[in-house]
Specification:
Order of helices and strands: HEEEEEEEEEEEEEEEEEEEEEEH
Number of domains: 2
Distance between the termini: 17 Å
Strand content: 25-35%
Shape: elongated
Number of strands: 22
Helix content: 10-25%
Radius of gyration: 27 Å
């Protein structure tokens, strides 16, 4: 059987996978803090019919070889952490990170997750939580008689309560960064978890340890560019079609050979 069948099949599978990734990017084009993914590919092992450098005659090595590849495979998905557009919402609990860093989220099982989604809320006890109700790991609670809330660029949260005119600090939002943020594991719900590939979290106030600054009243939108993703989608479609034509060409060749035999 022609090797082209299996080789082209790997190409079609790879293009299906990249379409899946592009579809997820486009589906999350309006997701707060979402970071787009791109796929990396690798060629498969080669059949070396004649290795480069093999002697053609005594003392005369071949300048080239005869190697036939076996196709392609998906190597990894790389999350791209370029900044998304900043949208002015005017809400006091909407916070965007300008630069590197993630908000730390306390999960019900005690584990810490990380997110770029700064659309915070208050629960019934005044605790700062995510839209899904998960607590901010910094444990900041807003008094029930608050009149205004201010979040500094370093994450310091101050409130004016009751009839007082002077602000009172109630806590500080700490950010976390990683040596290799692409190594974080996406858990859904705008949350990431630490892995051995990402390294341990480096925690600090905004503007320290390479961490970004916080902008109150803003949200970071998805960094997905629709035009770019649509171009990548068209390219994947065409590559899929070309691989399917290679299979058809191989089938035509086998059909021709079969007619000659018969």
């Amino acid at each position: 059987m022609l090797r082209a069948f299996s080789t082209s099949a790997t190409g079609m599978t790879a293009q299906q996978q990249i379409v899946d990734v592009i579809s997820n990017n486009l589906a999350n084009i309006n997701t707060t803090g979402f970071k787009r993914s791109q796929m990396d590919f690798q060629d498969l092992m080669y059949v070396k019919l004649h290795p480069p450098g093999a002697e053609v005659t005594t003392g005369s090595p071949s300048p080239t070889g005869l190697e036939i590849g076996n196709g392609v495979k998906a190597a990894s998905t790389l999350r791209v952490y370029t900044a998304g557009e900043m949208e002015n919402t005017g809400r006091p609990l909407d916070i965007a990170i300008e630069g590197d860093g993630f908000f730390q989220i306390q999960m019900p099982d005690g584990e810490t997750r990380y997110t770029r989604d700064g659309s915070l809320r208050m629960d019934a006890n005044g605790n700062l939580v995510t839209a899904s109700g998960y607590l901010l790991a910094d444990g900041i609670s807003i008094p029930s008689d608050w009149r205004s809330i201010s979040v500094g660029k370093d994450g310091t949260v101050t409130v004016i309560t009751g009839s007082t005119a002077s602000p009172t600090a109630v806590g500080q939002i700490q950010l976390a960064r990683f040596a290799n943020p692409a190594g974080l594991s996406a858990e859904g719900g705008n949350l990431y978890s630490e892995t051995p590939a990402s390294g341990s979290a480096i925690v600090g106030a905004g503007g320290t340890n390479g961490l970004g600054l916080m902008q109150q009243g803003f949200l970071e939108r998805s960094n997905v560019q629709m035009v770019t993703e649509l171009v990548r989608l068209i390219t994947a479609q065409r590559a899929y079609e070309i691989n399917s034509r290679a299979i058809k060409a191989g089938d035509d060749m086998l059909s021709t050979a079969n007619r000659l035999i018969n």
